[in-house]
Design goal:
103 residues
């Protein structure tokens, strides 16, 4: 699993930084975000569209949402495979389907 997690992290660089700026939008917009307090220069938010999906940027950080979703699906499949080989085969649906037999 460590290798799969490292692969996910490599495919989705800046995920944490973009998440932080989006979750704490008001703080970063007001130039008082945690990283800004630590010396990161203030920057603007950017939202756009790339070939594989939406793109979110903040300063030097960039996240392609389509690539992130694909990487998350791959990691999800790896986790399911590690936990339950039958579940990883998903006999009743595609990669978006999760069956819960007993809630």
């Amino acid at each position: 699993m460590a290798q799969r997690t490292a692969t996910f992290d490599k495919k989705v660089p800046n995920l944490i930084e973009i998440r932080d700026t989006q979750e704490h939008f008001d703080a970063y917009r007001s130039n008082i975000g945690h990283r800004q307090k630590a010396g990161e220069p203030a920057s603007g938010f950017g939202y756009g569209l790339g070939a594989t999906g939406g793109v979110v940027t903040y300063g030097q950080f960039k996240l392609n949402v389509g690539d992130a979703v694909l990487a998350a699906h791959e990691l999800h499949r790896a986790i399911r495979d590690a936990v339950d080989a039958d579940a990883s085969q998903d006999p009743h649906g595609g990669p978006d389907t999760v069956l819960i037999s007993q809630p």
